[in-house]
Write a structure and sequence with these properties.
204 residues, mainly alpha, Arc Repressor Mutant, subunit A, 11 helices, 63% helix
Amino acid sequence: MPRTPEQNRIVKDKRKAKITDKALKLFAEVGYNNISVDQITKAVRCSHGLFYHYFDSMEDLFVYLWKEFISNNNIMFPINEALKTGGTKGLKTLTDHYSSITNKSSLDFYALKIALCLNELDNIPDEIKKKMKDVDLKRTLAKLIDQSQNEGNAIAGDANQIAKAIFELIKIDVAKNMNTKGKKSIISGDIILEMLMKKPLSEI
């Protein structure tokens, strides 16, 4: 018996989801610059024809993933909110958020890993380049640490270097938890904030 239009739609959606889920995982684990259409189709076990039925190119796929899984995903750090708050309170906004993501799915963690690494990528689509500042955690940390130092709260040192160290710690932690089933065992946001402060959080 021929499939109904609704059944055809469900089959097509499942095929597309299989491609996008695997691509999200590969981009997170290996990097957008290091993945080809051939690698994706082999991982999904589909033909190039099926890939190009849904996407015109790797760039088209990346833009789709960005719009559907990354840019509006509430696992993303609240960069703009933290910058608006500023200083020590802005840092706390970020670390509180990090503590809140333990129950997010692996797909969410893949999305976060891609966003964290976005500024390290070459040849990303122009449409996404315009939005890079909205997910630039390292730059945001540096600015907030500098402000917190001026408030007399953050540890002394080069704000950019401190931000780089914290950023790398978070990136490694996210990567470690990407494929963990169930609740994620991430570093507490309070621990990260305490590492940045000169005195106990209770005294700030």
